[in-house]
Amino acid sequence: MRKTLLNQALELMEHGSIPSVSDVAEAAEVSRATAYRYFPSQEALIQDAILEALGPILNWESDRDDAGDRVDQLLASSLPRVLQYEAVHRGALRLSMDQWVLIRAGEIDAERRIARGSRRRLLAEALEPIAADLGEAQFDKLTKGLSLIFGIEAIVVLRDIWGMDDDDSLRDVLVWAASAMVQKAIAEAGGRRKTGSTKPRTKAGPRTRQRKNVDA
Fold first, then answer.
1. N or C: which end of the chain has fewer CB within 10 A?
2. How far apart are CA 45 and CA 179, in angstroms?
3. CATH 2.30.130 is held by the domain 1-40
């Protein structure tokens, strides 16, 4: 029954709605009491629907030793699934934004907000080979930077602002941006080791040297 309810929730979200537990019960032709036994709130329903949409992404792992290759692999393997359920992820993002407004207005409790943190764990795992080299602060910065790319938000920008309908071109932009971030973090860490400094080096004037990009 739980699987049936989740499938109904995903189908409704694919058609642009953010269903309530009652909506899903009606679509599945079961009583609301039955639906609420599995999902006590809309937040619980949508949270599980997101996890269902992510599917195999949540179990991603890699046996590669190069962090750049691992990030590239994570993006390449995850993007098709995210695009398959793009409407679901957009709906979850919309609900998260609506909840942010309601929380600020004091209309709902912050504890009801949907948790959206899977990318943090996945990116940390992808970057694990260089964690010790980067140090805690730089590793945290890089993980946060990559989280801007690895998720529905970047797809919304590329689709809605830039009109990118070609999935391969979209992937190329995301991989290029991720590669640039990884290389920058590694270069900065290497510079600090050479100088013995614990802070990033700065140079006067504009930077003219360009770094060579590799797949990440």
1. N
2. 35
3. no
pLDDT of residue 160: 97
DSSP sequence for 58-79: GG-----S-HHHHHHHHHHHHH
Domain ranges of the chain: 1-40, 50-195
Q: How many CB atoms lie within 10 A of CB 22?
A: 12
**Can you tell me whether residue 90 is helix, strand or coil?**
helix
Beta strands in the chain (DSSP E): none
List, as one string, the DSSP characters of 103-117.
HHTTSS-GGGSPP--
Residue 100, C-beta contacts closer than 8 angstroms, at least 6 positions apart? 113
Mean of pLDDT over the chain? 88
Calpha distance 16→8 (Å, rounded): 13
SS3 content of the chain, % helix, strand, coil (to 5): 70, 0, 30
109-134 b/e (C-beta count within 10 Å ≥ 16 → b): eeeeeeeeebbeebbeebbeebbeeb
What is the model's pTM?
0.81
- pLDDT, residue 114, reads 82
